[in-house]
Structure formats: structure tokens, C-alpha cells
Design brief:
48% of the residues lie in helices and 17% in strands. With 181 residues, the chain is an alpha/beta fold. It has one domain: Rossmann fold.
Length: 181
């Protein structure tokens, strides 16, 4: 009997777009595994961001590999057919790295880009307490951001406000995209 192909949904976008908050709500509603991507950053990455030093590709690829390793472990260990993760995945090359390496592990990836106006992101970030990503880092995120444009298995959701509506749209897209239910 062959292994069931796992599915991973990546809530992506710059800091403050709601990846973690929505991820927790959606995982509870759908009773699926949620991985908080920020928790997989190395201590040196976190210290850089706290010091207002933007991450470079050489910092991000080991983090992306940690995400792949965690997702693969969960898919194999628990035989989790569906995993939800928060990961900025700002550049096209990062998304392709995830796609390529996860498909090799029999995990299909969908990206859900939470598109939010920069001013709204600034306001949200100013209200956050005890997060290593400070508002001063937002510009570096937008500098790196390559919005998905007609990429395979990708949906763009306007996530400026109304969390309940955004969550509902994401859940519906997950259901349609993967026939998880």
C-alpha cells in the first residue's frame, strides 16, 4: 500500500499580515497540524532581526530547509495528510525551493498570499508585543517581496481587515484546492 500524499498550505506574506494568527484559527477549525514558521528560525536569524538587520538568502535557505524537514517529519510520523504553516516565502525562489523539495517528499504545496496594505501592516506591527520582527524591518520585507503572479497552486487573498471573512475565504480555498474534506 503506497503512502498517502500529504498537502501543505503555506500562509505567506510580509510580517504583520496575519499568518500566525490566522494559522492558529484555521488549524483549530479544520483540526489540522499548524507549524509556526517563526519558531524554526535560528537564534542568529532572530538576533539579526531584533538588531534590525535584514535577513539575506544565506540566512533564509537554512530556515526554509528547517521548514521542509519539520513538514516531512510530521507527514511521515503522524501520517498527517494536511499541514498548515506560516512562512513569509517572500521571493519566488523561496517558494520554488519549498515546492521542489517538498514534492520530493511526496508533499504537495499550496501558497496562500495574504496581501495587506503596507500602512495597515505598520499599524498592526506597532500593536504587537515581544515579537522579534520590529516595525523598522517592514521595508526590508517589501524590498524582498515578489508577489506571486500566476504561480502554480497559489491564491492571493486581500487580508486588510475582517479576520472572520479572510479566514472563511482561506478555508474555502483550502477545501477547493485540495479536496481535504
Amino acid at each position: 500500500m503506497s503512502k498517502v500524499q500529504a498537502k501543505m498550505f503555506v500562509l505567506m506574506g510580509p510580517c504583520g499580515c496575519g499568518k500566525s494568527f490566522l494559522g492558529k484559527l484555521i488549524s483549530q477549525e479544520l483540526k489540522i497540524t499548524f507549524i509556526e514558521g517563526d519558531e524554526l528560525h535560528s537564534e542568529s536569524n532572530i538576533n539579526k532581526m531584533k538588531s534590525k538587520i535584514p535577513l539575506e538568502d544565506s540566512d533564509r535557505y537554512p530556515w526554509l530547509q528547517a521548514i521542509i524537514d519539520k513538514a516531512t517529519k510530521l507527514a511521515n510520523e503522524k501520517n498527517s495528510p494536511c499541514i498548515l504553516i506560516s512562512c513569509s516565502a517572500l521571493k519566488f525562489s523561496y517558494r520554488n525551493f519549498l515546492r521542489k523539495n517538498l514534492i520530493e517528499q511526496n508533499i504537495i504545496v499550496w501558497f496562500i498570499y495574504l496581501k495587506v496594505d503596507k500602512q495597515i501592516l505598520k499599524e498592526r506591527m506597532q500593536k504587537r508585543d515581544n515579537h522579534f520582527m520590529v516595525v523598522d524591518m517592514l521595508e526590508s520585507q517589501f524590498k524582498d517581496l515578489e508577489e506571486p503572479n500566476n504561480e502554480e497552486n497559489t491564491v492571493i487573498i486581500e487580508a486588510d481587515n475582517n479576520t472572520d471573512l479572510v479566514k472563511k475565504v482561506i478555508v474555502e480555498n483550502m477545501k477547493v484546492s485540495s479536496a481535504i474534506y
